[in-house]
Amino acid sequence: MGKIAIITDSTSSIPASFRHQYNLTVLPQILIWGELTYRDGVDIQPDEFYARLQNSKENPSTSQVTPAAFKEAYENLTREGYEILAVLISSRLSGTIDAARQAIELVPDAKVTIFDSYTVAMALGFQVLAAARALENGKSMQEVLGILEKTRGETGVILTPKTLEYLYRGGRIGGASRFLGTALNIKPILTVIEGRVEPLERVRTRRKAMARVVELVEERAGNKPIRVAAQHAKDLEGAEDLLTMAKARLNVSEGFISEVSPVIGTHVGPGTVAISYHLEA
């Protein structure tokens, strides 16, 4: 059986320990700030990003991983004898998959399979980890693709941003636009459905919003074992509280904290917290 390498993109928010353990290739999305361009998580880290965002009069924008970055990764991995599996951010949220496909034409010797996660953040990350663990157990590409299809239906993300302003600016607000213009003390709870950010509920306080996020995950999980990532955009304390609540209410088989990358932070804004999860059958 040939060797298989996994490529994903930086919106997956996979902690460094997992990236190293499974030898994942994580390609950076692009952050554009004025005349400067940064590679997500490479040229700019979350602390620097949020410090600058707080004081900047100019809003950053984002762009997908370039075809050139995919081309370089394909060439390097093909040279090392790998077949490639690219598990990427939803095609409805980003042009990353289009860039990955364009790069295939530039490296005719590369054997590349692309999988659309239909999601983002650690909901994408958990799909990547499921594939990596399957490969570690000796599964073939076709077997891994079957596992990914199943896992895609078992993963999700529920988030509560401090404000919808950043999602609105980035044009990724989906049906949650109906929450715009509500009273300032109303906290939205959102999810990603088939690659689009959609509304779930509104509650009156931040604390209630966080508790409700956990309840909504519990409604989906029941007592099934579940892997959870408490994620945050410059709110480590909020993520720690969220993980504590999740462990108290859910049958957590794996739980950790993950900071979202600057590119995701551009769209959700500072103070956002979320639970990404993977239900285990």
Features:
6-stranded mixed sheet, alpha/beta, 27% strand, 10 helices, single chain, 281 residues, 2 domains, Hypothetical Protein Tm841, Chain: A,domain 3, globular, Rossmann fold
What does this structure look like?
The chain has 281 residues and is α/β, with parallel strands linked by helices. It folds into two domains: 3-29 and 64-152, 3-Layer(aba) Sandwich (Rossmann fold), CATH 3.40.50; 155-279, Hypothetical Protein Tm841, Chain: A,domain 3. The protein is 40% helix and 27% strand. It contains ten helices and 13 strands. It has helices spanning 16-21, 46-55, 67-79, 96-106, 121-136, 141-152, 165-170, 206-221, 236-249, 262-268, and strands at 3-9, 25-27, 30-33, 36-39, 61-63, 82-88, 112-116, 155-160, 187-193, 196-203, 226-232, 252-259, 273-279. The strands form three sheets. The chain has a six-stranded mixed beta sheet with strand order 10-9-8-13-11-12, sandwiched between helices. β9 and β10 form a beta hairpin. α3 packs across α4.
Short description:
By secondary structure, this protein is an alpha/beta fold. It is built from ten helices and 13 strands.
Largest sheet at a glance?
6 strands, mixed
Shape: globular
Mean pLDDT: 91
- Helix/strand/pairing category: alpha/beta
**Element string (H = helix, E = strand):** EHEEEHEHEHEHHEHEEHEHEHE
User: In percent terms, what proportion of residues is strand?
Assistant: 25-35%
Q: Strand sequence of the main sheet, in spatial order?
A: 10-9-8-13-11-12
End-to-end separation in angstroms reads 27 Å
Rg, rounded, reads: 18 Å
CATH class of the largest domain: Alpha Beta
- Write down the domain tally: 2
Compute the number of helices. Answer: 10
Helix residue percentage: 25-40%
**Poorly predicted regions:** none
